[in-house]
Design brief:
This protein has helices at about 5-25, 35-50, 65-95, 100-105, 115-135, 145-160, 180-195, 205-220, 225-230, 240-245, 245-260, 265-270, 275-280, 285-295, 300-340, and strands spanning about 105-110, 165-170, 175. By secondary structure, it is an all-alpha fold.
Length: about 350
């Protein structure tokens, strides 16, 4: 299967991890925007699953061996760094409280609830894509129709598939399975597929795409409760990522489509800057470690806590990438070659 890596998607990850770390450290008025950052990550996971830049996105799951290799690749990507960080934290702190729940994903504490959602989504992902393959081949549905169905399904799941129907224990409470956010990302990947991955050429269209992307970035920043309460004091505890997660995921889908269709636009070029690409590729490690560091960063201001936590997390993530993720990525590439 031919795959392509787009640097602007790594830049998108960098922006999402900035929102998460800033929210957890109460920095820059981003308190509560961690929910929005997580929605961005979930939408991107769904978007990438649909593999919008290839034509064999569904066919790759048409054999048992392909599904098993997919599971193994996801395991190699997610689990070893997670276990390394988790066991290291428990060893340093000398505490084993809820260790089993975190290791087995049935009762993840704190920010680790994110992993529950990702792991469960990837468990169902091959069967979801096979369903789309059936609809495409047997029911003759085009990519645009599949995108519309996925978007409709995301709305229905978000509204009706609540914790009362099915829940995961995470962060000390019953969490709904946020599959709707993943489906929203997939929907926009199919919209992009139906567009045959064009590049916007007209100057006016390029400018319009950049303006929409800039507006989305502004929305992510200025929709925080810190800014909203200046408009209406009653919004002091309104967190857009938790109150309107599907809106955030759908906005992410539009943003992803536009930065891929407008690779030479201002926003795409900004996201492709090496510093943002590097941070984006380290974002998983940063996410895993940053929350554990916050209690040990007793600085006077949230911004100082942010920079201390972010850069220490960045350093640890670089070590994890060098000694854990890169060797496993080479192994994952060998699995791809075996599956051809």
């Amino acid at each position: 299967m031919k795959t392509t890596r787009f640097d602007q998607l790594d830049g998108f990850r960098a922006f999402a991890i900035f929102l998460v770390v800033a929210s957890h450290t109460y920095a820059f008025g981003m308190t509560g925007q961690g929910g929005l950052g997580v929605a961005l990550f979930f939408a991107l996971s769904g978007f990438l699953l649909a593999v919008p830049w290839t034509q064999d996105g569904e066919e790759r799951f048409c054999s048992v061996s392909s599904i098993l290799i997919f599971y193994l690749k996801r395991f190699l990507r997610l689990i070893p760094p997670y276990y390394l960080v988790l066991l290291s934290v428990y060893w340093v702190t000398g505490s084993s409280e809820n260790l089993l729940g975190n290791l087995l994903f049935f009762n993840c504490q704190g920010h680790l609830w994110f992993l529950q959602q990702e792991v469960l989504f990837y468990f169902f992902a091959p069967f979801l894509v096979l369903l789309l393959f059936f609809l495409k081949k047997k029911c003759r549905l085009g990519n645009f129709c599949l995108g519309f169905l996925l978007l409709a399904a995301s709305c229905l799941f978000q509204k009706y598939f609540t914790a009362r129907v099915f829940y995961l224990m995470g962060n000390g409470k019953e969490q709904s399975f946020r599959i709707g956010l993943f489906l929203a990302g997939m929907a926009f990947a199919y919209f992009l597929k139906s567009w045959n991955i064009p590049c916007i050429k007209a100057t006016a269209a390029k400018l319009a795409a950049d303006l929409v992307c800039i507006a989305f970035i502004g929305f992510c920043v200025f929709s925080s409760a810190f800014f909203l309460q200046k408009i209406d004091p009653s919004l002091s505890s309104y967190y857009i990522g938790w109150n309107r997660p599907l809106l955030c995921a759908a906005g992410s889908g539009v943003f992803l489509v536009l930065i891929l269709a407008n690779p030479d636009g201002i926003v795409s070029r900004l996201l492709k800057l090496p510093v943002f690409v590097s941070i984006g590729r380290l974002s998983y490690g940063i996410y895993l470690i940053h929350f554990f560091l916050i209690p040990y960063a007793p600085f006077a201001t949230p911004s100082k806590v942010f920079f201390a936590v972010f850069f220490v997390s960045l350093g640890v993530a670089m070590i994890i990438q060098k000694w854990i993720e890169e060797p496993l990525q080479r192994l994952s590439s060998r699995l791809d070659r075996l599956n051809r």
